[in-house]
UniProtKB/TrEMBL annotation, chain A:
<feature type="region of interest" description="Disordered">
    <location>
        <begin position="1"/>
        <end position="21"/>
    </location>
</feature>
<dbReference type="Pfam" id="PF12172">
    <property type="entry name" value="zf-ChsH2"/>
</dbReference>
<dbReference type="InterPro" id="IPR002878">
    <property type="entry name" value="ChsH2_C"/>
</dbReference>
<feature type="domain" description="ChsH2 C-terminal OB-fold">
    <location>
        <begin position="62"/>
        <end position="125"/>
    </location>
</feature>
<dbReference type="InterPro" id="IPR012340">
    <property type="entry name" value="NA-bd_OB-fold"/>
</dbReference>
<dbReference type="InterPro" id="IPR022002">
    <property type="entry name" value="ChsH2_Znr"/>
</dbReference>
<feature type="domain" description="ChsH2 rubredoxin-like zinc ribbon">
    <location>
        <begin position="24"/>
        <end position="59"/>
    </location>
</feature>
<dbReference type="InterPro" id="IPR052513">
    <property type="entry name" value="Thioester_dehydratase-like"/>
</dbReference>
<protein>
    <submittedName>
        <fullName>OB-fold domain-containing protein</fullName>
    </submittedName>
</protein>
UniProtKB/TrEMBL annotation, chain B:
<dbReference type="InterPro" id="IPR016039">
    <property type="entry name" value="Thiolase-like"/>
</dbReference>
<dbReference type="InterPro" id="IPR002155">
    <property type="entry name" value="Thiolase"/>
</dbReference>
<dbReference type="GO" id="GO:0003988">
    <property type="term" value="F:acetyl-CoA C-acyltransferase activity"/>
</dbReference>
<dbReference type="Pfam" id="PF22691">
    <property type="entry name" value="Thiolase_C_1"/>
</dbReference>
<dbReference type="InterPro" id="IPR055140">
    <property type="entry name" value="Thiolase_C_2"/>
</dbReference>
<protein>
    <submittedName>
        <fullName>Thiolase</fullName>
    </submittedName>
</protein>
<feature type="domain" description="Thiolase C-terminal">
    <location>
        <begin position="234"/>
        <end position="377"/>
    </location>
</feature>
Length: 144, 380
C-alpha cells in the first residue's frame, strides 16, 4: 500500500460555490490559489470574499508556491467510500501560512514514511471535468 | 461573585444505561426528564423552560405535556447541555422562566429513532475542503491534532495510553460503568487500530442513555432537598473544520470557556476538588488540563503519569470512568454534568471525600465548541 488514491467514483467530490470557484479553476489549471487581504496583508484559506482577520472585502487572489510541510495526520483504518485503508488524512501547512486538509501521495501510508514537518509539494489530481484535487507528495519526488 | 446565581435542584440519568433496546431517542429523553423532575420533587407541569439537543426542544416539551415560556435548542454537539445550563442561568436570572429542564437522550448504540447525524453538502466548506480527503466521522477528525501535540511536547504514545488505563481504574469503582475490566498500557496500545495513533481503547464507547437536570434560581433552590449551586459558566467556539483549528496543541475554545467560568466563579484552579473533562478520545484530558490552567502547556501527560488524576490522586478527573469506560451515547456532555453533580451531592460511586467545588468541562465536535460549568455544594 503506497498510495491512498481512491478506487473509483465514490470519493466525495467538492461542489464549487461562487465564493470558491476561483480555487477549483486554479487546481484545474495547475495552480494552488489563496487570497490575500489588501488591507492587513493576511493570506488565508479556505476561500471567501473577505478577509477573516479584518473583515475587509478588498482581497486579491495569489498563487501559492505549492510548497508545504506536514503539520499533523491520522492513518484511517476503516473504509470510507472511495478510499482503501490504510490511508493518511493529512493537514499540511503551506509556505504562505494557511493550513489545508489533503492526502500525501507517493509514499507509504505509514508512521515511518509520514514524518511531521517533512517537506511536501502540491500535485494536482483530476477527478472529473470540473474537479481537480490538490494532493501533496514528498518534496523532490517526480511530479506525476 | 455573581449578582445572581442558579442551582441544580434535580438531576438524574436514564433508569438504564448502556444498551437500552426498549426506548427510542425521545423515550430516553423522557425517561431521564421524568427521573430528574421526580428527583427535584416536582411534576412536569412545574417546568416552564425546556432545553435539549438532538431532539427538538419543542417536540420534547410537547411529549412531556409542557407548555414552556422559554426553550433552547442549541445543538452544536456534545457540550450543548453545558451551554443549555449556561443559557438557562441567564434566562432564569432575567425572569424568562423559573424552572428549567435540560434533557438529553440518545440511542447511540441501538439506533432506535435517532436524529440523523449532520451531513455535509458537497458545497459546504467541509464538503469542499475536508470530505474529499477521506474523513469519516469523529474517529478521523477529533484525532488529527494529537501527533502535532506529541511532537511539540515530546509526549509518547505510551503516556497517552495511560489515560484510558487510569479512567478504567475509576470505572472499576462504578457499578454502572460499561467497561470495568482492568486495562494496561499494553492492552491499550495493542487493541485494534482505529485511526493511527488511536486504538480502540483510546476511543469512546458507543452506548444508549440519557440524563436530565432541573434548574432554578439559587434563592428558590434553598427550598429543595439537595441543591448544587452554579458558581460560574463559560462557553466558546472555534472552527467546525478541524483542519482550521488555530493551534493543534491547544484549544482556543477551551481556553476562553474555562477562563470565563473561573473568572465568574471567582476561584482559582487550586480551589477545585474534582474535575470532569469530556473524553470522547484519550487525548482530550491533556488539552483540558492545560487549557483550563491546571497544568502548564506540555505538562499534562506527566501530571497524569504521576497519578494526580487517578483514584487517590490530588485532582480526581473523570471519576465515573469517562466516555472511554463509563458510557458515551454520542453527545457525552450531559454525563460530565451528572457526575459533577453526584460528587457535589456526595453520592458518587467513587466519591471524592469532602469535595466542595467541581468543574465540568465539555467539548463539541472536534474542538469546535466548548463549555465549562463550575459547581459547588456550598451556596455562593
Ligand atoms: Zn485583512
Amino acid at each position: 500500500m503506497t498510495d491512498p488514491r481512491p478506487a473509483g467514483a465514490q470519493r466525495p467530490l467538492p461542489k464549487p460555490t461562487p465564493e470558491t470557484a476561483h480555487f477549483w479553476e486554479g487546481t484545474r489549471a495547475g495552480e494552488l490559489r489563496l487570497q490575500t487581504c489588501m488591507g492587513c496583508e493576511k493570506t488565508y484559506f479556505p476561500p471567501r470574499f473577505f478577509c477573516p482577520k479584518c473583515g475587509s472585502r478588498s482581497v486579491k487572489m495569489v498563487k501559492a508556491s505549492g510548497r508545504a510541510t506536514l503539520y499533523s495526520y491520522v492513518i484511517a483504518q476503516r473504509p470510507v467510500p472511495g478510499f482503501t485503508p490504510p490511508y493518511g488524512i493529512c493537514v499540511v501547512e503551506l509556505e504562505e501560512g494557511p493550513r489545508m486538509m489533503t492526502n500525501v501521495v507517493g509514499c507509504p501510508q505509514t508512521p515511518e514514511a509520514l514524518q511531521l514537518d517533512m517537506p511536501l509539494t502540491v500535485v494536482f489530481e483530476p477527478k472529473d471535468d470540473t474537479i481537480t484535487l490538490p494532493l501533496f507528495q514528498p518534496a523532490g519526488e517526480q511530479v506525476r | 461573585m455573581k449578582r445572581k446565581s442558579i442551582a441544580v435542584v434535580g438531576a438524574a440519568e436514564t433508569t438504564d444505561l448502556g444498551v437500552i433496546p426498549n426506548l427510542s431517542q425521545i423515550g430516553l429523553n423522557a425517561d431521564a426528564a421524568l427521573n430528574a423532575i421526580a428527583d427535584a420533587g416536582l411534576k412536569p407541569s412545574d417546568i416552564d423552560g425546556v432545553a435539549t439537543a438532538g431532539e427538538s426542544p419543542i417536540a420534547l416539551a410537547s411529549y412531556l405535556g409542557i407548555t414552556p415560556t422559554w426553550i433552547d435548542g442549541t445543538g452544536v454537539g456534545g457540550c450543548s447541555f453545558l451551554m443549555h445550563l449556561r443559557h438557562a442561568a441567564a434566562a432564569i436570572n432575567e425572569g424568562l422562566c423559573t424552572t428549567v429542564l435540560v434533557a438529553h437522550g440518545e440511542s447511540g448504540r441501538s439506533q432506535i429513532a435517532p436524529s440523523a447525524p449532520p451531513s455535509y453538502h458537497p458545497g459546504s466548506l467541509e464538503g469542499q475542503f475536508e470530505k474529499p480527503f477521506g474523513v469519516g466521522w469523529a474517529p478521523t477528525m477529533f484525532t488529527i491534532p494529537l501527533l502535532r501535540y506529541m511532537k511539540t511536547y515530546g509526549v509518547t504514545l505510551e503516556q497517552v495510553a495511560q489515560i484510558p488505563v487510569i479512567q478504567r481504574q475509576w470505572a472499576a469503582l462504578n457499578p454502572r460503568a460499561m467497561e470495568k475490566a482492568p486495562l494496561t498500557v499494553e492492552d491499550v496500545l495493542n487493541s485494534k487500530m482505529i485511526a493511527y495513533p488511536f486504538t480502540r481503547h483510546m476511543c469512546c464507547l458507543v452506548t444508549d442513555g440519557g440524563g436530565a437536570l432541573v434548574l432554578t434560581s439559587a434563592e428558590r433552590a434553598r427550598d429543595f432537598a439537595r441543591p448544587v449551586w452554579v458558581l460560574g459558566t463559560g462557553e466558546s467556539a472555534e472552527s467546525t473544520m478541524i483542519s482550521q483549528m488555530q493551534d493543534f496543541t491547544s484549544s482556543a475554545a477551551f481556553r476562553v470557556s474555562g477562563a470565563k467560568a473561573f473568572s465568574e466563579a471567582g476561584i482559582t484552579q487550586s480551589d477545585v476538588d474534582h474535575l470532569m473533562i469530556y473524553d470522547a478520545f484519550a487525548h482530550l484530558p491533556l488539552y483540558g488540563l492545560e487549557d483550563l490552567g491546571f497544568c502548564q502547556p506540555g505538562e499534562a501527560a506527566g501530571f497524569i503519569g504521576d497519578g494526580h488524576t487517578a483514584p487517590g490522586g490530588s485532582l480526581p478527573v473523570n471519576t465515573n470512568g469517562g466516555g472511554l469506560s463509563y458510557m458515551h451515547s454520542g453527545m457525552y456532555g450531559m454525563y460530565v454534568l451528572q457526575e459533577s453533580i453526584r460528587q457535589m451531592r456526595g453520592i458518587a460511586p467513587a466519591q471524592v471525600k469532602g469535595a466542595k467545588i467541581s468543574v465540568a468541562h465539555g467539548v463539541a465536535g472536534w474542538f469546535s465548541g466548548s463549555s465549562t460549568i463550575i459547581f459547588s455544594n456550598e451556596a455562593p
